[in-house]
Amino acid sequence: MTARRLFLSISSVFILIFLAHSLGFLSAPENFFRRIILPIAKTIYLIELKTKNFYSGLGNQQNIISENEQCQIKLRETYLDQTELTLSREENKTLRAQAGFIKSEQKKVLAEIIIKTVDGTSNSMIINRGSENGIETGNPVFFENGFLLGRIINVEKNTAIIRLITDNRSKFTASIINQNKTQGLVEGEHGLSIKMKMIPQDENVQVGDIVITSGAEKNIPRGLIIGKVESIQKELYEPFQSANLRSLADLNKVNIVTVLLKQ
User: Fold this and answer.
1) Helix, strand, or coil (residue 125)
2) Where does the signal sequence lie (predicted)?
């Protein structure tokens, strides 16, 4: 009986904490502790990055890693060039002005990642920029010249939380760069991968096709690169097919990101 009462007491405490958090009653203490923890977490994160880079450079692996990174950079540049060329061919000048965010005058904010959290079902990052810098909930976040990383879901004065594209709750309307400009919905898969769903059964989707944001969502421009098709699931009796995608974002190495502000 004593053990049962203890279990019920502990369960009640956890439920009360969860409800208080959900209703926002713990916002003040959470923000207080976050301000204390962020500088420490940032230092630990940077030390972790430096340690990984140090050990990855030991021995004969250094040249191999360097060559692999150069290949990845060239591959991403190829995807960018291919995406930009396709967009310039298929869209008129007005739409291209909206889609060509890389060369446009849209407002952007550079930010540094200070905390990264992964728990198996969700993926998020905290950056060192917030409402003071014009960041708002819903802003898309990308790295390098236009590879989608995620979306802002929470904003404080000097920090903001990014929900990564691999997060289970992440959803983006997407388009495949092909003849039919195939539309679908990209969702995170178990915090590890991404999948494009709701693709009409009669659409011709190929392994290697590049997937980009469709521009159908407010404040999410067309042309942000999500990834490329790695495999396709297609059943004749189903109205839709789906495709597993590979993101081009190596989350262990992304340190600086860009937040695209609302216009």
Assistant:
1) strand
2) none
**Residue 215 resides in a domain:** yes
* pLDDT score for 248: 72
Which residues of the chain, if any, have pLDDT below 50? 60, 90-103
Please, what's the b/e burial string for 86-119 (b: 16 or more CB within 10 A of its CB; e: otherwise)? bbeeebeeeebeebbbbeeeeeebebebbbbeee
CA separation, residue 26 to residues 20, 32, 158 (Å):
6, 10, 19
Q: Which amino acid does the sequence have at 96? A: R
Report in angstroms the alpha-carbon separations of 191 from 11, 116, 180, 253. Answer: 27, 13, 30, 17
Q: Are residues 83 and 160 in the same domain?
A: yes
DSSP letter (8 states) at residue 132: G
Q: What is the pLDDT of residue 62?
A: 54
194: exposed, middle or buried (C-beta count within 10 Å: 0-12, 13-18, 19+)? buried
- pTM exceeding the 0.85 threshold for the entire prediction: no
Domain-embedded: residue 132: yes
Same domain, 82 and 151: yes
Nearest by Cα to 125 from 133, 134, 136, 114: 114
CB atoms within 10 A of CB 237: 5
For residue 63, give the 3-state DSSP assignment: helix
Q: Cα dihedral angle (130, 134, 140, 144), rounded to 10 degrees? A: -80
Residues 6+ apart with CB under 8 A from 101: 146, 221, 223, 224, 260
Backbone angles phi, psi at 26, to 5 degrees: -100, 10
Q: What is the pLDDT of residue 94?
A: 35
Rounded distance between C-alpha atoms, residue 137 and residue 262, angstroms: 10
Between CA 167 and CA 109, with CA 155 as vertex, the angle to 5 degrees is 90
